[in-house]
Design goal:
411 residues; 2 domains; 55% helix; Macrolide_Exporter_MacB; six-stranded mixed β-barrel
């Protein structure tokens, strides 16, 4: 028997051996599956991190900076976080070159919003000056934005994010309706478009309502001089590095910080977000890459050891085949077919395990994953590489057995 028929016969015998030695097959499949699961997780997690970076940068805007009170990089005990003042916002608007929009903000988390017999808990209430939607490049589905008149009068008006609008009003228009925020009535003047992006802390960005900043400070009895964050948009996004440095210098001067002293504020730009996500992605890749490598090596060693034992156990079978004229290359091919078939099954199982684990971690807001065909092909390629590399030595061992000694069980 020669040619393709020989190879088909050898492959058939290899697959038959996979079924015959079930316990060995299960151990090999599981060993490989854990390694492939780790590999799948790293590929989908990195792809998810890339998607997350694109989403966050698009949402944030390449022409904007977000300033937080307090130095969130230092996190010193007792450090003030309310360091941004109304005067800071005014000076930035009037003195900083290239500024287009300046938007002071403050938030109250975990609030309850009601409309009729429906209510939502754990909603983020954002206090903002005029033009919130403009400053955040956030389209309005209907209605209008917060205005300077609303802010000056401390008006009880509200912009609804998509999630509260859907939860409280369904398909009906919320504009002109009344909602109660912490039992205080507010008239809905607009509805923000759906964005579908999670925040850095894993929250739903659409789960928010926006009211005038003065109204927030009055109704929650907050200090009216300071606010938590400042959103700034510039005219020339290509000069964002210079804009950010000018902003930092101005705020340090306004806060009377001495040379060498740490900033008492934090400036975030799209570039800073990308740097952070790149560091996170790099650390994630290293951690999961080491885990995947170790797991795949373990699976490979399991395969090599079990196949070496199998060669000894099947010495008489191998000797008989060689006595009947089977060539060493055919014996080696049979064992390689067995190894690759087992690792292929392990690769498919590992792919589904990795995707399942990724979905679980994604639901817990630990990782963001995105399936791609790259993960599928890498899983198959990785599993076949393990089968070929770690199955080669036992296959050569089987091919090199002396037929007479093998038939005597001396393999």
């Amino acid at each position: 028997m020669t040619g393709p028929r020989l190879y088909i016969r050898v492959a058939s015998m290899g697959l038959g051996a996979v079924w015959s030695f079930k316990l060995r097959s299960i151990f090999v499949i599981l060993g490989v599956a854990f390694g492939i699961a780790s590999l799948t997780l790293i590929v989908t997690a990195v792809d998810g991190a890339n998607r997350k970076a694109v989403e966050m940068v698009e949402m944030f805007g390449p022409d904007a900076a977000l300033v937080f009170g307090g130095n969130i990089m230092m996190r010193a005990v007792g450090m003030r976080t309310m360091t941004l003042s109304r005067d800071d916002a005014r000076q930035v608007r009037e003195s900083l070159p290239g500024v287009r929009e300046v938007l002071p903000m403050r938030v109250q988390a975990g609030q309850t919003v009601k409309a009729g017999n429906r209510n939502m808990q754990d909603v983020l209430v954002v206090g903002s000056t005029e033009n919130y939607a403009v400053a955040w490049d956030w389209p309005l589905v209907e209605g209008r934005d917060i205005t300077a008149a609303d802010e000056a009068a401390g008006a009880k008006v509200v912009l609804l994010g998509d999630k509260p609008a859907v939860e409280l009003f369904g398909d009906e228009s919320p504009v002109g309706r009344v909602v109660f925020i912490s039992n205080i009535p507010f008239q809905v003047v607009g509805r923000l478009a759906y964005r579908g992006v999670t925040t850095g802390g894993g929250g739903d960005i659409d789960n928010r309502v926006i009211i005038p900043l003065n109204t927030l400070m009055q109704r929650y009895n907050l200090d009216r001089k300071y606010f938590r964050a400042l959103r700034i948009k510039f005219y020339e996004p290509e000069n964002m590095a210079a804009h950010a440095e000018n902003l930092r210098s101005l705020l340090r001067e306004l806060h009377h910080l001495e040379f060498g002293a740490d900033d008492d504020f934090t400036i975030l730009t799209a570039d800073e977000i990308l740097k952070f996500l790149s560091m996170f992605k790099g650390g994630l890749s290293i951690f999961l890459g080491v885990t995947a490598t170790i797991s795949m090596l373990v699976g490979g060693f399991v395969l090599a050891n079990l196949f070496s034992i199998s060669v000894s156990e099947r010495a008489e079978e191998i000797g008989l085949k060689k006595a009947l004229g089977a060539r060493g290359s055919a014996i080696m091919l049979q064992f390689l077919v067995e190894a690759c078939a087992l690792t292929l099954l392990g690769g498919v199982l590992g792919l589904f395990l990795g995707l399942g684990l990724g979905q679980f971690l994604s639901r817990l807001d630990i990782l963001t994953i995105q399936f791609s065909w790259k993960a599928f092909f890498l899983a198959l390629a990785g599993s076949q590489a393990v089968g070929l590399i770690f199955g080669l030595k036992p296959a050569r061992q089987a091919a090199g057995l002396d037929p007479i000694q093998a038939m005597r069980g001396e393999g």
